[in-house]
Amino acid sequence: MGSTRARIAIDAMGGDNAPAEIVAGALKARQELGVEVLLVGHADRIKASLAQRKDVDISHLDGVEIVSAEEVIEMHEEPLTALKRKRKASIRVAMDLVKENRADAVVSAGHSGAAMAAALLRLGRLPGIDRPAIGAVFPTINPNKRVLILDVGANVDCRPKFLEQFAVMGAIYSEYVLGVAQPKIGLLNIGEEPSKGNDLAVRTHQMLAENSFISFIGNAEGRDVLSGNFDVIVCDGFVGNVLLKFAEAVGEIVLQTLKEELLGQGWLGKLGTKLVEPSLRRFKQRVDHVEHGGGLLLGVAGVCIISHGSSQAQSIFNAIRLAKEAIDCEVLERIKSQYPESTQQSPVSQPSAES
After folding, report:
1. Does the N terminus or the C terminus of the chain have fewer Cβ atoms within 10 A?
2. Where are the beta strands (DSSP E) in 43-155?
């Protein structure tokens, strides 16, 4: 796919480090990726963050637009209630920009439940998709291979047909965005045999095995997730979210332990750190969740990236890059093509979980 001049709506008020880090990541994406960015949120606070940057001329910001949204959905608020009450919430305004074709994608590091609810309410689901899923990319033991896990938080309770749809969407994303030819699909389970697991797992296994569009190779146990044997692994959002946060914690612990062990060895440790510094940087790029930017909300009628609440500038940059890749690779159009007989969307239901 050719590169597009994408316009990305960014929830500048979302996340622990908003708006300063969000603005910094957006400007980096503008400079390095060539995207146009729409910073959505409190105009005065966004301008103040821009004014603090010595490398920016606030009087002339080519490709950067501030879109005023004076309300913010806080982490403690119930998503749907807050969205209906706060019509000028930054995440809702950002979604409306996509709905009105003023933007091609949304990136938010704010309330993930609110982001998903806003996407469903303002954009709707793709025809043929019953529930959207958040897909997250994990590293594997193979340095040249990644695995896509979905769902990692959008749906606590799932039916077999939801998981089958996740597998189809995951296969499309893996092939066209991650560049995997004939991605191998797995179902997260407690054993390899088709009869293992609960009723949901057994029924889903049968549906995936009968789906001719995907290359389903069977169940994936917990030890298989990072093995590199699978390109896409599907599970319900409860299990997926636990897996995501556990993996993030393990990555941080390993990085911190390596630093402490190397630096704790005196001058020999410092010398060793210098020698292995390039390898440590590559290791960090493979395991650090910041490098992936967030997860793509697959199944809604618009490109939406849900980033980490603790996101800093680099993570926001990577989230915008992820959005641009989804746009360039026409992920939404490819998902639509798999459900040609679906002409109407079913009514939007309340999201069942917050990641």
Report:
1. N
2. 64-68, 105-108, 133-139, 146-150
One DSSP character per residue, 181-233 reads: SSPEEEEE-SSSSTT-S-HHHHHHHHHHHH-SSSEEEEEE-GGGTTSSS-SEE
DSSP β-ladder status, 184-188 and 232-234:
parallel
Dump pLDDT digits (tens) for 102-138: 999 999 999 989 999 999 999 999 999 999 999 999 8
Spatial distance between the Cα atoms of 340 and 285, rounded to a whole number of angstroms = 39
What CA–CA distance (Å, rounded) separates 232 from 186? 6
* DSSP summary character for residue 300: B
Q: Which of 141, 139, 138 has the alpha carbon at shortest distance from 152?
A: 138
* Amino acid at site 27: L
pLDDT digits (tens, 9 = 90+) for 34-69: 999 999 999 999 999 998 887 766 666 789 999 999
Residue 187 C-beta-side C-alpha neighbours within 13 Å: 33
